[in-house]
Every structure is written in structure tokens, then in C-alpha cells.
Specification:
Blueprint: H1 3-20, E1 29-30, E2 34-45, E3 48-60, E4 63-69, E5 75-76, E6 81-84, E7 89-92, E8 94-99, H2 114-124, E9 127-132, H3 139-148, E10 155-158, H4 171-184, E11 188-191, H5 197-209, E12 213-216, H6 224-230, E13 234-236, H7 241-244, H8 254-266, E14 270-272, H9 275-282, H10 287-291, H11 301-308, H12 323-340, H13 360-370, H14 375-382, H15 384-389, E15 407-410, E16 426-429, E17 432-435, H16 436-449
Parallel strand pairs: 1-5, 2-6, 2-7, 8-9, 9-10, 11-12, 12-13, 13-14
Antiparallel strand pairs: 2-3, 3-4, 7-15, 15-16, 16-17
Helix pairs in contact: 2-16, 4-5, 8-12, 9-12
Length: about 450
């Protein structure tokens, strides 16, 4: 954990200790950045949802410094911003574990403001942490700017430029690239298709020595089993699973599902499914419904037109004849992995192909729910599980003292009504409060900037 995070957590712990060890007096007041009172917490305890009403949250220096029942909460001075959340719910901020964070500079046909706009759309929808899975030049500056408060956005953990058949030409280059990315400050390595088995093995070996995670796709020459054995931290898009049992173009069997679940558990690998995006990529989604997503008006014209033309010039993953059976197999696989106890971490692969940052979480939630995953486990995969993944870097993912002050204020209980996430009442990100009014104003500005 970084020193700054340790210091912030220590300050939060000291504040909590002081409040717990002293009975608040009628004339005694304390100071805090924010206090959210009369709220119902939606959190998790030992893997199970834990909903507690009549609570007071205290935020100081970017962290939650105290959680009290209303009756036990201390008084606060006039310098504290009080938010009365009577009748509302607070959920930990969500994580996007497979994002594509834009570069911090002008990029192709995209305007300079593109990066800041996409970062805002994440947090506007309650996504307060993003694991970026494709590094660009100057992207580390985005991360630094957010950490220092110079730029508004979710906390970023970034993979460097990817390891793929297009970027790697030799084992020697792989080794050099791993060390270079570690020294440059990237948080993990991104695996793309096209690596040879020898190149992949060299990357994995060097990454282990450099204490760096590697995650993403499963190159065809490597295969699922070897990627798991090599210690790949997450397998994204369920890549390599159906290919391993040759079920790309036919219905998968229960025995094959059982085998894939057993392999996943044996090697303790997590999956980041990205079901909604993949449904679109392979051609199983309804293009007429996709083009009617209102949020696609929040991306630049060049991006939007590229998405709208996808079915005229699809990717190599597109296979409309077999798309439906592939999608059904993916849903069955996700259900089996959940039922078997595999670690599933939430991700949507935004921004990409009708997946607009933040807004894409609603489509992913719908697909995961259709796969038979309970809402409590879907939301846990986007909060607690993501926080556990990054537990060595920081403390977040729950509404608890010492955790980063990332949370979403909601009108209804999201465990019972996930649609409440579509219109949150406000978002706290790194201890900065964004009201619904402020969010709507900025979103409309973005919409106007990209209007045709």
C-alpha cells in the first residue's frame, strides 16, 4: 500500500477511535469534510448482504473515517457539509475491472476533452475505480492527476501497452518489455491474442520475478489450461473457455461445464466476463436496440459512427451464424462458474462498441442477472470482490471506516431494484461529493459537445 494511503487510513482510524472512546456531549462538536446522516447502508459481511438503516457516515481526507448509528453519532461543527439522506440507501462505489481508459492527449479523431469526459461518465454512474486494460502514452499522467486532485475521475489501476502478436517479435523483447513497464509504473500487464507459447511463457516468468500481475485474453497457442497454470490473474471475456472444450459452435455439455469450473477453482483464477460487450461483438445482440441506446450520444461522432457501422465491418470475433449458441454457452458457463464458487469480478470493457463508460454497467447487470446470478452477488462482484483484488494497493469496496470514500447514494435498495442505479442521487468519489444536479449538468454539457 502506498504511503499516502497508509497515512489517510491512519487518520481515519484515529478519528474513529476518538469518536468511539468519548461520549459526545451536547456542547461538543467535531469537524469533518462530509457527514451523510439518516442513511441505510447496503454492504456485505462475510459474503452476505448486510443492510442497516439509520446510519451516519463521516468522510475525512478522502476516506470514510467513521460509521455510526444515528443515535451514537457525534455532533459536527458548521464547517462540516451535512447531507441528509433520509429514506435513501448508500452502496459502495463500483469497479470497472476491464476498462479502456483513453490517452490523456489528442488521439486520432478524438478531441482533447475525450479522456476527461469518459472519466466523468464513469463516476456519474457510480463507477469509482477502473482497471484500465490497454495502456496509452501519457495515460499514467491521468492516474497521477486524479490522485493529486488535479483531475476528476475514478481511481485508476493501469495495464501498460499490451503484449500481443502485433507488438511482440521475440522472447528477448518480451522480457525487456515486462521490466520496462514495471519501471515505468504500470500496475499490471495486458495479454492480447497472438503471443506464441514461448513468448507467453517468457512474459509470465519475468512477470512473476518482477512481482507484476498479468491478465486479459488467452492466446490461442497458449490455451486455457496453460494460462491458468502460468498464474494469469484474471481471464477476461471468458476467453479460451469455450475453445478449450471445442464448444464455440455447438451446445456445451454439463460435463464440459463441470470440467471448466474445476479447472478455474484448482488454479484460483478469477474471471471478468464482459457479457454484454461480447454479445455485441459476436453478433448475438439486436443492432436496432443497440443504436437506440440514448447514452451513445455521449461519445464523439467518430466513435459513435464507428459503432453504428460495426455490422458492415465487424471484427474477427463476429460469427452471426453461430452467435446465438456461443452466447447461450457463455451464459451457461457464467452460471456454472458462479454456482461452483469461482471468483467473478465485474467488468464491461467500456468505452467500446455501444458500451459507454458507466452506462455499460446497467447492461452488464442485466446479462449477469439473466445468467441466474443473484443481484447481491452481482453487486458484490463490483464492490467487495474488486476491493479484495486490489487489497495490497488500497482499501476500498465497502462502506466501512478506513475505506476510500467511494460510494453511491440511491433512492431505493439496489438489491431489490437495480434500476435505481440508473438515476443515483449523488456520488462520493475519493471524498469529493457530486450531487445529482452537478452530475446532470456535466452530462448535458458532454452531450452538447458531441451533438451532430
Amino acid at each position: 500500500m502506498k504511503l499516502t494511503h497508509l497515512l489517510a487510513a491512519a487518520v481515519a482510524a484515529l478519528f474513529l477511535s476518538a469518536c468511539n472512546n468519548a461520549e459526545p456531549q451536547s456542547n461538543e462538536t467535531r469537524s469533518a469534510d462530509y457527514v451523510i446522516k439518516n442513511v441505510t447502508l447496503v454492504d456485505w459481511l462475510k459474503g452476505e448482504p448486510n443492510v442497516i438503516d439509520q446510519q451516519t457516515l463521516v468522510v475525512n481526507n478522502g476516506y470514510i473515517s467513521g460509521v455510526f448509528s444515528n443515535a451514537e453519532a457525534p455532533a459536527f461543527d458548521d464547517n462540516t457539509q451535512i447531507i441528509d439522506a433520509e429514506g435513501q440507501y448508500v452502496l459502495p462505489g463500483m469497479a470497472e475491472m476491464h476498462g479502456h481508459v483513453p490517452p490523456a492527449t489528442d488521439f486520432g479523431d478524438f478531441p482533447k476533452r475525450y479522456a476527461d469526459d469518459m472519466l466523468f461518465l464513469y463516476i456519474a454512474n457510480g463507477v469509482t475505480t477502473v482497471r484500465g486494460m490497454l495502456g496509452y502514452p501519457h495515460q499514467l499522467q491521468l492516474k497521477s492527476d486524479i490522485e493529486s486532485g488535479k483531475r476528476l475521475g475514478p481511481t485508476l489501476y493501469l495495464a501498460g501497452p499490451s503484449f500481443s502478436g502485433n507488438t511482440i517479435e521475440s522472447v528477448e523483447q518480451v522480457t525487456e518489455r515486462v521490466i520496462a513497464q514495471r519501471d515505468e509504473g504500470w500496475d499490471l500487464l495486458k495479454v492480447h491474442p497472438g503471443l506464441t507459447l514461448e513468448e507467453y511463457e517468457a512474459m509470465a516468468s519475468t512477470a512473476r520475478q518482477a512481482d507484476m500481475d498479468f491478465a486479459g485474453h488467452v492466446p490461442a497457442e497458449v490455451g486455457l489450461k496453460r494460462a491458468m497454470e502460468a498464474g494469469q490473474r484474471t481471464i477476461d471475456h471468458l476467453d479460451g473457455y469455450l475453445a478449450y472444450v471445442d464448444a464455440m459452435n455447438r451446445e456445451i455439455t454439463q460435463d464440459e461445464l463441470d470440467l471448466l469450473v474445476a479447472m478455474t477453482l484448482e488454479h484460483d483464477v478469477a474471471v471478468v466476463p464482459t457479457q454484454a460487450l461480447w454479445k455485441t461483438l459476436i453478433g448475438a445482440a439486436n443492432p436496432n436496440k443497440l443504436k437506440d441506446y440514448p447514452e451513445i450520444q455521449l461519445v464523439p461522432t467518430a466513435v459513435r459512427e464507428g459503432w453504428l457501422n460495426y455490422y458492415n465491418n465487424p471484427s474477427s470475433y463476429f460469427n452471426q451464424e453461430q452467435a446465438q449458441v456461443q452466447q447461450e454457452n457463455r451464459q451457461k458457463l457464467l452460471h456454472a462458474l458462479h454456482e461452483g464458487g469461482a471468483e467473478i469480478i465485474f467488468g464491461t470493457d467500456a468505452p467500446q462498441l455501444f458500451s459507454v463508460p458507466g452506462y455499460s454497467v446497467h447492461h452488464e447487470i442485466r446479462l449477469m442477472s439473466e445468467a441466474g446470478i443473484p443481484m447481491a452477488d452481482i453487486l458484490r462482484s463490483a464492490t467487495v470482490v474488486a476491493g479484495d483484488y486490489f487489497s495490497e494497493q488500497d482499501t476500498f469496496g465497502r462502506v466501512a471506516a478506513g475505506h476510500r470514500a467511494d460510494f453511491i447514494l440511491l433512492k431505493d435498495n439496489p438489491l431489490e431494484n437495480p434500476d435505481t442505479l440508473r438515476e443515483n442521487q449523488g456520488v462520493m468519489v475519493r471524498g469529493q461529493w457530486l450531487s445529482r444536479e452537478a452530475i446532470d449538468k456535466k452530462v448535458e454539457e458532454i452531450r452538447a459537445a458531441y451533438a451532430q
